[in-house]
Specification:
Blueprint lengths: L1 H20 L2 E8 L28 E4 L4 E5 L22 E14 L2 E14 L1 E2 L18 E2 L22 E6 L5 E6 L5 E5 L5 E5 L14 H6 L11 E6 L5 E6 L13 E8 L5 E7 L1 E2 L4 E2 L1 E7 L4 E7 L13 E7 L12 H7 L3 E6 H7 L11 E12 L2 E10 L15 E8 L20 H10 L15
Antiparallel strand pairs: 1-24, 2-3, 3-4, 4-5, 6-7, 8-9, 9-10, 10-11, 12-13, 13-14, 14-15, 16-17, 18-19, 19-20, 20-21, 22-23, 23-24
Length: 473
């Protein structure tokens, strides 16, 4: 029996490793960071950047059926210093981009597929009721269209979750089951809003508990952090967003723990579930600690495998765009079935005691390294994540996982490297999920976005939304 012990241990170890090793990179694609989107906003922003610069597309990524995806930029270009009193933000109008990410067998060099990104539309986000602005009001505002923008001074007195504030820093996006709406999370409030997909009109606000808000607001993030003892950390509010396959529940989280739970650098994050019909909210703890690094990491994105299991993307801020080398980009699997609702709890210790365990699903950095992508070329901000259509690889049907980067609207990184908008496509099988079951989101068929927009335009219901088509191969 003793002679069999080592072979059995080796077999067990190999089996555990092979599940993760089966997840492979099949395609990658990019769009230059110097292109324009289809918003029509060619005027220059206060910081000297064009208002239609096509950047930051990987802050959020949502599958919309077929090879159609929605790419979400954040609050706009603010990586270049120009006005520290507003954290170098500008009146960049919030928007999402509609695009196709077309996979074609062959043509990918050493990869089995090639990926062709094509921009097909730009939709600007607005409210039909007045919003609170700071020094700059979007020039395209009209009597019943008040556009959200990234300027940090767009707020009034009161809690940061006031839905009348115009400042918006979008980070997560998902498509409703009927395909007609999009749900978007934000870091400023934090907010969770519902928008009409074709027009960009805000149609619903989901109210988060007051313990997520800060009471003392300023246009400088560092001052907001030092001036509050509870609520979200400035610039690290609602980050990731998932939607359950049945379309009934949104699940999101903060980029870092709330101030009262340890703040930035802490390890006790909160998952928030929201009923899309009633707006009812529940909270669950999530431990972002990575044992191999002996620290907690910011959480960037999440996806629903089913109605109770989720994939969570955790990362450092190192790599391409930061002028450094990536150290950690990983995806974990977590199950909240049976987890304790922590709505009434506060503090890191209390939350960690209620946090369900997690397991490593994919080491992104290791797979990219294995495909010749060095750590200095792995994007620092891998933030967008979405499932796509199944594909066949070597005769085997596989599920697809798309991961996108936020290039901070910088076409060139600080160390002079090209810094485009990028997408990486991975495949995985049911076996890679262990005992978990993958249920693909099912969406009711709706007209193509351009067709639907034209129908609304004919009825006088369309906002400022691009209806042209542009190919950036």
């Amino acid at each position: 029996m003793k002679k069999l012990l080592i072979p059995l241990l080796l077999t067990s170890l190999f089996t555990a490793q092979s599940a993760n090793a089966a997840i492979t990179l099949i395609a990658k694609g990019s769009l230059s960071g110097s292109l324009s989107d289809l918003s029509g906003l060619s005027a220059t922003l206060e910081n000297g950047v064009a208002g239609n610069l096509l950047g930051g597309m990987g802050s959020g990524l949502a599958w919309a059926g077929g090879n159609t995806f929605l790419a979400l930029p954040d609050r706009g270009p603010n990586a270049t210093a120009w006005n520290s009193s507003v954290d170098d933000t500008s009146s960049y109008v919030a928007r999402f981009q509609t695009m196709t990410l077309a996979l074609t067998a062959g043509g990918g060099g050493s990869l089995p597929y090639s990926l062709t990104p094509t921009l097909t539309g730009t939709t600007l986000l607005y409210s039909d009721t007045p919003l609170n602005y700071g020094a700059v009001t979007p020039a395209i505002n009209s009597a019943n269209k008040f556009y959200f923008s990234g300027r940090s001074d767009n707020f009034a007195a009161g809690l940061s979750t006031n839905p009348a504030n115009a400042r918006l820093d979008p980070e997560g996006i998902r498509v409703s089951k009927d395909g007609k709406s999009v749900y978007i999370t934000d870091e400023y409030g934090p907010y969770v809003y519902q928008f009409d997909r074709a027009s960009g009109l805000r149609t619903n606000t989901y109210t988060l508990p007051n313990n997520f808000a800060v009471a003392n607001l300023t246009s400088q993030g560092a001052t907001e952090i030092s001036g509050n003892t509870s609520g979200r950390v400035a610039n690290k509010g609602m980050e990731g967003l998932a939607i359950t396959p049945d379309g009934k529940t949104l699940v999101g989280f903060e980029q870092s723990p709330l101030l009262q739970d340890g703040g930035d650098g802490g390890r006790a994050n909160r998952l928030v579930t929201i009923d899309t019909i009633t707006g009812n909210v529940h909270q669950y703890a999530y431990d972002n600690y990575v044992a191999t690094k002996s620290k907690g990491y910011n959480s960037s994105e999440m996806l629903a495998l089913n109605d109770h299991e989720f994939l969570v993307l955790e990362r450092d801020g190192k790599g391409l765009g930061d002028g450094s080398n990536a150290a950690l980009k990983q995806i974990y699997k977590v199950d909240i079935s049976g987890a304790t609702d922590v709505s009434g709890l506060s503090g890191e210790a209390a939350l960690l005691a209620a946090a369900p365990s997690k397991s490593l699903f994919l080491d992104i950095k290791s797979v990219l390294n294995a495909n010749g992508i060095t750590n200095d070329l792995i994007p620092a901000k891998l933030e967008g994540m979405a499932f796509g259509e199944d594909v066949t690889v070597d005769g085997i049907l596989k599920h697809t996982l798309y991961i996108a980067n936020d290039n901070d609207f910088l076409a060139t990184s600080p160390d002079g490297k090209s810094n485009p908008n990028q997408w990486f496509v991975f495949t995985f099988s049911d076996a890679d999920l262990g005992s978990s079951t993958f249920v693909q989101q099912q969406m009711t068929a709706v007209p193509e976005p351009e067709t639907y927009a034209m129908l609304l335009a004919g009825l006088g219901l369309l906002g400022f939304s691009a209806r042209r088509r542009q190919n950036h191969n």
